[in-house]
Amino acid sequence: MQFQLTDEQRALQDAVRSYLRDRFGPAQVRELYENPGGDGVPAPLWKALGEQGWLAVLVPEEHDGVGLGLLDAAVLAREFGAGTVPGPWLGTVLVAEAVRLAGSPEQQAELLPGLAAGRTKGAVALLRPGSSPSPAAAPATASAGTLSGRLDLVEYPAVADVLVVAAGSDAGTGLYLVDPRGTGVTVTSVDSLDRTVRLGTVTLDGAPAGRLGHSGAATVQELLDRAAVLVANDLVGIARKALTDTVDYDRTRVQFGKPVGSFQAVQHALADLHIAITFAEHAATYAAHAADVDAPDRRLAASVAKAKAADAADAATSAMIQFHGGIGYTWEHHTHFSFKRCKRLQAAYGDAAQHREQIARLTVDAAAVAT
Fold first, then answer.
1. CB 231 within 8 A of CB 343
2. Buried (b) or exposed (e) across 16-40, using 16+ Cβ within 10 A?
């Protein structure tokens, strides 16, 4: 089993932290929040993601990528969660993964170099909001080389250059490439509780689409699982940062002549959070490792990671606001950034309850096979 990062992965972690500490902090996040009409993609940050190879992490080297694994991408996702990093990083990485897993050699050669460099931005629509993460929840229907359907809560559709959509057809469920600015495609922006992201509804009405030639229901499920693992790591990044900031604050905030953090009730609550977050970190790390080595329990690990990370981040960000006292409730404090990002990601690619159902289903199926 793998629960620790390698020296190279720790170096990657340090590089991202260093960049965010020096060049993208709460002031830049607040600027994004207070400009909801913008595209939500800070140009210097996006340029850095491309230059540092953080968009190319999963792209094979023959297509100008770095050719690393999902655990390396999870390191990035965790730091991006801690730093409340905006932009279509996740969508671009998932589009590249879809093309890598199921695209033809021609599709890979055409799309992967641009996605790796950041010249091409990606967005995905893999399931209907509120649905359990399975191919049965594909949000579109394919027929005669076109797609139709309504895609809700798509991240960054207005800036995306390519959209990957899961769709059902007589030939079974598969993944399709759609031009977000093509005929038959209408993009409508919608407000989000979390303003570090830009959401939209995409309506497809006979939109031309090209199927990723090797895609099927198994590929859709694989992409959903990988998305869940990356979101789980984003959530544990949020959770750890929320706890760290809360401990720092309660060490210095004085009430009744003593630091708030010296009271036993506060200490116990923070210790419980530390344990829950540590469990979630290990689960998220192992899930990424399991995907990289194609472990038999990789689907189970993905669901365990997403459920634990969602619960831990919810508890940590809620406590963050409470244990910051009055300042935590004000708009001027950055507790809101983490709390709202957590609320959005808790439901992304299946909420905790849906993943627990998945855990039960997979466990029962495994027991039935064993007998």
1. no
2. beebbeeebeeebbbebbeeeeebb
Residue 108: phi and psi, rounded to 5, are -65, -45
Where does residue 68 fall: left (phi above 0), alpha (psi -120 to 50 degrees), or beta otherwise? beta
What 3-state class would DSSP assign to 220? helix
- Which ranges constitute the DSSP H helices of the chain? 7-23, 26-33, 43-51, 70-82, 89-102, 105-117, 217-252, 264-292, 298-323, 335-347, 352-370
Give the separation between CA 297 and CA 285, rounded to whole angstroms.
14
Alpha carbon distance 231, 194 (integer Å) = 15
- Please enumerate in sequence order all residues whose Cβ is within 8 A of that of 110, keeping only pairs 6 or more positions apart, or say none: none
DSSP 327: G
| Angstrom distance (rounded) from CA 287 to CA 297 | 9
Q: Per residue of the chain (371 residues), what is the pLDDT tens digit?
A: 556 789 999 999 999 999 999 999 989 999 998 888 899 999 999 999 999 999 999 999 999 999 999 999 999 999 999 999 999 999 999 999 999 999 999 999 999 999 999 999 999 999 999 999 999 999 999 999 999 999 999 999 999 999 999 999 998 999 999 999 999 999 999 999 998 899 999 999 999 999 999 999 999 999 999 999 999 999 999 999 999 999 999 888 888 888 888 889 989 999 999 999 999 999 999 999 999 999 999 999 999 999 999 999 999 999 999 988 878 778 788 899 999 999 999 999 999 999 999 999 999 877 777 76
Closest among 307, 308, 318 to 342, alpha carbons compared: 318
User: What's the rounded Cα separation, in Å, for the pair 285 and 78?
Assistant: 10
- Measured from the Cβ of residue 245, the count of other Cβ atoms closer than 10 Å reads 19
At 209 the three-state DSSP class reads strand
Are 320 and 339 contacting, i.e. CB atoms less than 8 angstroms apart? yes
The type of residue at 333 is H
